[in-house]
């Protein structure tokens, strides 16, 4: 499927594929969205984003092992393997870290991964999807995303789990923080024909888990919101009107 389309008289091409993070990017700062998603300007890696990717990869490798082999030692080996992989990745190389800084990043990533073991028993997890790519049409746009982990419970229910390596939100921001995993719930229902029984955010730094139950109403809201945001993006492209929103999420 094409990644964008051009409206007559429009300076900018209109994306026809969106991810949950890109939707939030446009809502937070339309100008930042244009730079990243339409103009495709380079987005240099940071230590925080690279560390997050490393931890995600380590947990992906960890859950590829049979349940009875998912021990702390196994997790440590998975982190080791992820670190070796990342030494050859541009996102790590482009940080230009000296030896001490690289060791600090790797140590922090190892600590974050180890914190996972305080949140649940990995031997009891039936992971049926790891870094699972999904996409589903929503009107004129295709919603795309990668689910960190999709589990199947003993009762035959689906559970979406998303790992977070940053700070957990304060209580008043918890609902907003769950918007991404609610999008994944919509995609699961669209693609797999089954609405997840739960969506979870696991904050590895603080050891907190935020859980919500998708409902028919929340699924409809995700559909409505996706269409509304895409319509606003199309209008912004047609009018060349990507206004910055001054906030911590928009530096422009």
UniProtKB/TrEMBL annotation:
Pfam families listed in its UniProt record: PDDEXK_1 (PF12705)
Keywords attached to this entry: ATP-binding, DNA damage, DNA repair, Helicase, Hydrolase, Nucleotide-binding
Residue span, PD-(D/E)XK endonuclease-like domain: 18-235
GO biological process terms held by the UniProt record: DNA repair
Keyword DNA damage tagged: yes
Coiled-coil ranges per UniProt: none
Gene Ontology MF annotations: helicase activity
Protein name in UniProt: PD-(D/E)XK endonuclease-like domain-containing protein
Species whose genome carries this gene: Ilumatobacter coccineus
